């Protein structure tokens, strides 16, 4: 006796065929379902395609003045953003207080803890926590291997771990001491 794997039901005629079972490239939410053309639909000829293209070009030309106004608005927004960046640059130019700084990085990850707070980066993702946003900072070293894990806990019960690969296991002790010095200097002050 034969046993079939999978559904034996077929989609009804006229219903759209969707899902990964029918289209391996289908990703719900990212792609729209493929619409079947009716059987009586005729293929578009070259003349009809050129006419449709000319109509689209005419619509685009009519929208050009609106796009110019939108471009001017974007330029003004860019100028405002430039002014904000200049303000940020002025803040960055302020001398950092003389205090401890912890910084550790490997080929993918990076952590910096200083007077501003804790900044984590992994590949192209970054996050920054001010000292008043941090509930606790936890460190952990791997029993075997060279992974140093720093986890930032927030008061709303979320945590953000990052692993740094050390060049040698001797870096763990130095990193722990540097991070403790930063936490003693800045984290206690904010509470």
From TrEMBL:
Biased composition (Acidic residues): 45-96
Record's compositionally biased regions (Basic and acidic residues): 34-44
Top-level lineage group: Bacteria
Start and end residues of each stretch annotated as Disordered: 1-104
Compositionally biased region (Polar residues): 1-11
Name listed for the protein in its UniProt record: Uncharacterized protein
Protein source organism: Streptomyces griseosporeus
The organism's taxonomic lineage, starting at the top: Bacteria, Bacillati, Actinomycetota, Actinomycetes, Kitasatosporales
């Amino acid at each position: 006796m034969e046993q079939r794997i999978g559904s034996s039901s077929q989609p009804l005629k006229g219903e759209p065929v969707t899902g990964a079972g029918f289209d391996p490239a289908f990703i719900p939410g990212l792609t729209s379902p493929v619409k079947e053309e009716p059987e009586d639909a005729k293929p578009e000829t070259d003349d009809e395609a050129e006419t449709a293209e000319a109509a689209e070009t005419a619509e685009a030309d009519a929208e050009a003045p609106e796009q110019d106004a939108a471009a001017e608005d974007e330029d003004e927004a860019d100028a405002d953003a430039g002014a904000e960046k200049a303000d940020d640059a002025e803040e960055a130019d302020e001398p950092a207080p003389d205090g401890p700084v912890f910084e550790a990085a490997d080929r993918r990850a990076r952590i910096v803890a200083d007077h501003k707070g804790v900044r984590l980066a992994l590949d192209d993702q970054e996050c920054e926590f001010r000292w008043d946003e941090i509930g606790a900072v936890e460190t952990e070293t791997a029993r075997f291997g060279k992974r140093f894990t720093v986890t930032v806990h927030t008061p709303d019960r979320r945590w953000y771990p990052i692993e740094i690969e050390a060049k040698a296991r001797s870096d763990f002790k130095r990193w722990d001491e540097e991070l403790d010095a930063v936490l003693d200097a800045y984290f206690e002050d904010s509470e």
